[in-house]
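User: Please predict the structure of the protein below. I'd like the answer in structure-token form so I can feed it into my own downstream comparison script.

Assistant: Understood. Taking the following sequence of 638 residues as input:
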Amino acid sequence: MLLCSAPPCSFTLSSKRGLPNLAAPSRFYFGGENSTLGLVQRHNYIMASPSRIRSLKLEATLQSDNHGSSSHRNENSTIHGVSETIVGVLGGGQLGRMLCQAASLMAIKVVTLDPLENSPASSLSYQHFVGRFDDGDAVREFSKKCGVLTIEIEHVDAITLEKLEEQGVDCQPKPSTIRIIQDKYIQKVHFSQHGIPLPDFLKMDNPESAEEAANLFGFPMMVKSRRQAYDGRGNAIAHCKEELPSAIAALGGYERGLYVERWTSFTKELAVIVARGRDGSVLCYPVVETIHKDSICHIVEAPADVPEKIRKSSVDIAHRAVSSLEGAGVFAVELFLTNDGQVLLNEVAPRPHNSGHHTIESCYTSQYEQHLRAVIGLPLGDTSMKTPAAIMYNILGEEEGERGFYLAHQLMKKALSISGATVHWYDKPEMRKLRKMGHITLVGPSRSHVKKNLDLMLNRKSIKNNTPDTPQVAIIMGSDSDLPTMKDAAEILNTFHVPFEITIVSAHRTPERMYSFALSAKERGIQIIIAGAGGAAHLPGMVASLTPLPVIGVPIRTSSLDGVDSLLSIVQMPKGIPVATVAIGNAANAALLAVRMLATRNEELWERVMKHQEELKDTVLKKAEKLERGGWEKYLNP
């Protein structure tokens, strides 16, 4: 389209500010320095020489929002809104799109630079600039529109960013960090120097180093490209010495820049999203498990189903890894959980990440809002989950072209009929096999609940024929003789439409069953346990010692001590093993307490609890009115 002696870089400039009488939106195409083209409008496009466009940009800047960004304002002036800093994002893919969505809630202006005119972020960004994010000239021009420069993809021109930083441009995270991350071998060296546990690795740049790697690590062996490697691209497996040359050739040969890793046998792949503020503060999100399809992230389960020891180790490694880098923003730390229980760092991404998509619906602060907070210098937000469980499912292209779009539409249509499901579509114009086209997040009260809904979505079962709701409360008792008392709890839970299970578990006669029940309760979706016991009344305390779930004990009335022995047994639990209790035989109150606990995280249930309290109040007031009007004799003898 543009005739010039040097490759053009192009920008999109919205005409709603600064440039009068231009069709909106207009596209500005920068020619090379030797271009003689002046400003010419053709249809809805503007073409200009660099000198002319600089003149126009200067004129526009006098009236534009960039003039009012935090980097240009007087320190004593009032900030209108959360922040007036214009955030420039290198890259306009789905991550940039979701950054723009998060920014819109706080009216933070985000401008994007991407080679595609209709990139996923282009329709949502405040201004979209068309140009390559690895083109130094394009990035240099783009930086003039920003108060702070950040990335949504690490394959950018880090050298230009370092030069811009020297000239005073605010880049977050720091270009030095991006440069380390871009070369995966240097990344490994950096983290190993900071004591981060990693799989063994070795640079491989000639046949001699390949021979050394084979002798050191044996086979199978993972051969990796140092640069431009993601979503499984840039990896090759050599299962034996004879396959090593073909693996090297498949990655472009030694000149491409390669390294090798000792083969790591792992049981799970984990990830931790880490936020780092401009003040150096670091916050970690809950550990998640990532499940891959053809080396592409396909499913993310939050939180990861791993022991507390593994969680702590994962968070510690992620915290230390990000603390060793420079700059603010959100980072994704990918980890291996090995067969022998070690947690090893795989790699780090200096940006929002696929493993953090779920945070939009499942956490108090999404990774996208957090990234904006961090790079601008706002306080970091709460990283904890606001829902007990979540699953993110990537919508990957199943087929090319229209057939692929049809299949994706059917899946999303199914998801929209499921409670707790949220659909994100990236609006990419071209469907390719295994391309990330969108994602679906499912949230719910338990891991089993969201997994059930995922199965429902993928198996295309009918919602009407769905299995019963996952029980949230378990009612257990030591003997069927306790059932006449414990049935009151079941009746209350039915009244409030709380799904529950009821069974017999004896602490003395079926200890193995009690152990199995208590250890599996949380995984089955149980959130509260109501345990009835008489006599020695060991059941509530034993169950409480086996699970972190709250346990409410119901003392059962017995013939010998009328239930007092049961009450005293339950309330005399040792320090550190709490068991709540109610009056002797009052299973109804135990259920009401369970309902109130559940209602703190369920608005619909909260409304039912409030209605129940109002009904109790009305009942008492009616009785009082009847007594006052008719007197006590008539009240007792109607």
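That's the full token string. The CA atoms of residues 18 and 231 lie 41 Å apart.
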